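WARN retry 2 of 3 for item q-0093 after timeout on previous attempt; input resubmitted unchanged.
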Amino acid sequence: MTADRKVPVLIVGAGPAGLTLSNLLSRYGVRHLLVEKHPGTAHTPRAHIVNQRTVEIFRHMGLEERLLAVATPNELMANNVWHTSLAGTELARLWAWGTGPDRASDYHGASPCSMVNCPQTLLEPVLWEAAREHPEAELLFEHEFLSFAQDADGVTARVRDRHSGAEFEVRCAYLVGADGARSRVVEQAGLPIEGESGLGTALNVWFEADLSQYLAHRPGVLYWQAAPGTPFPVGPRTLICHKPWTEFVMAVSHDPAAEIGPETEEFAVRCIREMVGDPTLQPVIKGLASWTINHQVASEYQAGRVFVMGDAVHRHPPTNGVGLNTSIADAFNLGWKLALVHHGQADATLLNSYSVERQPIGRQVVDRAIQSLVEMEQVHLALGLRANQSESDGWAALDELYQPGPDGEARRGDLRRAIELMNYQFNAHGIDLGYRYRAGAIVADGTPEPAPTRDPQLYHQPATWPGAYLPHAWLDRAGTRLSTLDLVTGTRFSLLTGPGGEAWAEAASAARKATGIDVDVHTIGTRDELFDCYGDWARLRGTDTSGAVLVRPDRHVAWRSARYTTEAARELTDVLSQILSPPVSVAAATDSQGGSMTASRS
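OK item q-0093 returned
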């Protein structure tokens, strides 16, 4: 049977991962079809923390300014607050998301971009509107993916128009499942999902109310209620600010077997009033949505010509705010590889590196999110709050925090230490930016991986070691400021060198003739090229000035050479050939300190 439509790539799902991949493929000149069973983009806020790496990816796509136009800026994310109610007693506060005086320089120095807060109800339309502008993309909402069959030459998928009921076939070279936690693509591809599901239940209440009198003086994203007598045995209520200071989500952990009617507006209004501490508040309820806590990751992200990404393959609670960001990074990894293969510039075996590189990161993210959820209990214990505790006993425990003498000081010390532990969730810069690949489309340079000099989960340690992400450094070109990250464009590789390395341009030309791959050569530190205005690149480059750092289109370091030699052309040609047709093996692990999961070519 002849397929009704033929495209190089079929994407299933119009969430952050699917829409990001659509934008990337369009920029890379790859025609594709995206189908989404729902009538539009996200109808509830869902994920909202957008870390620096994700903003960098938006910058790469030319969408950074559009994102910033709808997002809440970093300075309004500054405080995490624990309280008995918003109108009641504040119990503790933490500088969050790199805004504190002890962390701001780390965050500012690591990226040209600031992290922001942007719920999916605002972020997805940015991606959707941009995707619609490209002729390479066909985007179909209310179209449901039904099934697929693959053979040696491609994939045939069946899709149903949910409006008309008509079904049609799509023939594609590659199928990408970005269809969420109930992924039909994952199920039909037979990809094993490891871990546990249904570890807890929560209700999100999306509402509007003017809470500026409670929040404007302590701006933040997350406000945690820790009130004695709160009738929710599984966990606290959390207020998530999506639009300062009038639009929010309240997340309520609850036990469906013990509580009656949690998914009603009456229940939601009562919870909001108790959390705010105002029995007369009239919130406008915009939506209710239940969700479950899972601890799951797919053991593989690929089955032949089928690839999966996002929540389809890593499922976890929203702690650390890593889900949306990891999903977009999945798309960033796969996009350039699909493009090079489609354009005949790389062997299809390059695509095998996607799962090798991204699956260990997904496992790390899932494990860290669960660990953070467990660690949050330390705050409740330090406050003296216990399960099945009477309300009077709870208030008595809180009163002890304010007593003079050794006992009161010990309680306050316990609370300070518990709040400090929350840095592993709310200031985990190493988790956000520090992941490295130890296997896949990279070539080792024979040097050991740099050992962490500080806690690798809390602190990002930039490096040019192959598999690491290209370090950010500000440069100047004829009066225009730009980041080292801005030197990498499209699907082109970039080679960064310095004084004495000018001959790398000839090596890159020879390598292009041999491999068909364009390599942009950038000389940093010479009088006529790029000025290393603060000397940061000289500190970070990890090579002699005549050496070179080869960077992939997704800004991960592919290879580096300590210095220029007469063998440069041959070496660069060999490296590109290995990357474009990599013999991939899995060799990824988390370091013994619990640091960022990383990946190196074996």
